[in-house]
Amino acid sequence: MTIKEFIDFGVEKLSSLYSKEESISLCNRLLVGISGYKDYAYISDPGREILLINKESVETKKDELFSESMVRDAVLRMAKGEPVQYVLGYEMFCGHRFNVGPGVLIPRPETEAMVSLITLSNSSRKPYEILDICTGSGCIAWSLWSNFPRSYVYGCDNSDTALEYARNQKIERREPDVAGGMPEHIDSVVDGVKADQPAPDFFKCDILSPEALSMFGGRKFDIIASNPPYVMEREKKYMRPNVLNYEPAEALFVPDYNPLVFYRKISQLAFDMLNRNGRIYFEINEMFGEQVASLMGEMGFSEPQVVTDINNKPRIVRALRW
After folding, report:
1. By CB neighbour count within 10 A (0-12 exposed, 13-18 middle, 19+ buried), where does 97 fall?
2. How far apart are CA 122 and CA 124, in angstroms?
3. Which of 23, 50, 80 is the last residue of a domain?
4. What is the pLDDT of residues 26-80, one digit of tens each?
5. Which end of the chain is more exposed for a tag (fewer CB within 10 A), N or C?
6. Number of domains the chain is built from
7. What are phi and psi of 209, to 5 degrees?
8. Which of 51, 80, 109 marks a domain boundary?
9. pLDDT, tens digit, for every residue of 218-275?
10. How many CB atoms lie under 10 A from the CB of residue 247?
C-alpha cells in the first residue's frame, strides 16, 4: 500500500463523518503517528510504499514496523467516530507527548494557552506550590512541573482512570527561563533550592464533595489551575460523535441550570488554600467569562480578569488572592 492509496482508503471510509479536507488531515496524522514519516510525505512522496516489512528490520528492530491490517483497522476505528488520539494512544500538548485513551479527556490547544499564560506570568526560577484541579490526563500538572523546575506540583481528579494515566505520563523538565529550550534533566542547587523536585503527586478528590477541603490536608498553594467541566448539557447537539460518544462525559458536562458549579466550588476552596499573592487560573466556557470573573470578585479575589485567545474569544479567567 502506498501513501496515496492509504490516504484514498481513509478518505473513503471517513467521508460520512468528516469533510474531505478533514479526512485527509486525520489520515495523514495517523500515518505520521504510526510510521514516523514527515507530515508532508503524502504530498512530496505519495507513491512511497509504506508497508514494506523485511527480515532484517524485524531482527534489528531499526524500524517502526506496522502491517496493512493494522493501519486499515486504525482507519475503521476512526470511521466509527473514535478520536484519532485514542487510536494513536497519545496527544501532543505544550511540546510533550501525553498518553491518552478511553476514560480520559484529550488535551486541547485551548488549555495550552492557559499553561502558556501561567508560565509567562510567573518566574520559572521561583519555588512554587502548584495545584491542578480536575487534572484529567495530567497535561496541565506535568507541563507546569516541566516549566517550573523548582516547584512542587499536585493534581487531583475524581476519576480513577484519569489518575492512572496522569501518574504514568513520562515527561521531562525544561531548563529554567530558556525560551524554546529542549527538555533537559536538571539536578542542581540554585539559591539553596534544589531544582529537580519530585514528579507531580496525583490524588483522588471529589471536588464537589463537602469534605473536599479536608482532602488537601491543610496544604497551601501559590498557583492553582483548573480546566473543570464547563460544557452545558444543551450544547451536546452541537458536538461531534468523536467527542460525545467517546470522551468521558463527567469531564465535559455541567447541568444547564448550574453551569458555574465547578467554578464556584473551586473558587471557594482556592480562597482558603492560596497563599497571600497566590494566583488562580481557570479555563472557561466562552459564554461565561464575565460571570466567572464576577463570581470570583464576589468571593474576595482581586483583579479578576478575562483573557482572550488568539481568536479573541474569552478562554481564561485569572485572579489574585491578597
Report:
1. middle
2. 6
3. 80
4. 999 998 888 778 888 888 888 888 754 443 443 444 444 556 778 889 999 999 9
5. C
6. 2
7. -70, 145
8. 80
9. 999 999 999 999 999 999 999 999 999 999 999 999 999 999 999 999 999 999 999 9
10. 21
Nearest to 162 by CA among 229, 95, 211, 210: 229
Q: Judge whether 248 and 105 are in contact, CB under 8 Å.
A: yes
Residue 44 and residue 110 in one domain = no
Residues in the chain: 322
Do 188 and 66 belong to one domain?
A: no
- Kindly list the distances between the CA atom of residue 117 and the CA atoms of 74, 123, 128, 202, in Å, as whole numbers in the listed order: 36, 12, 16, 23
Domain assignment of residue 197, yes or no: yes
Do strands 201-204 and 152-157 pair parallel, antiparallel, or not at all (unpaired)?
Answer: parallel
Structural domain of residue 37, as residue ranges? Answer: 3-80
Q: Which residue has the higher pLDDT, 175 or 159?
A: 159
Distances (CA, A) of 277 to 128, 191, 224, 319: 12, 22, 12, 10
- Coil vs helix vs strand at 215: helix
Task: Name the pTM for this structure.
Answer: 0.88
Residue 217 sits in the same domain as residue 239: yes
- Statement to judge: residues 63 and 157 lie in one domain: no
Shared-domain flag, residues 150 and 275: yes
Cβ within 8 Å of residue 305, ≥6 positions away: 293, 317, 318, 319
Residue 87 falls within a domain, yes or no? no
Residues 6+ apart with CB under 8 A from 277: 222, 320, 321, 322
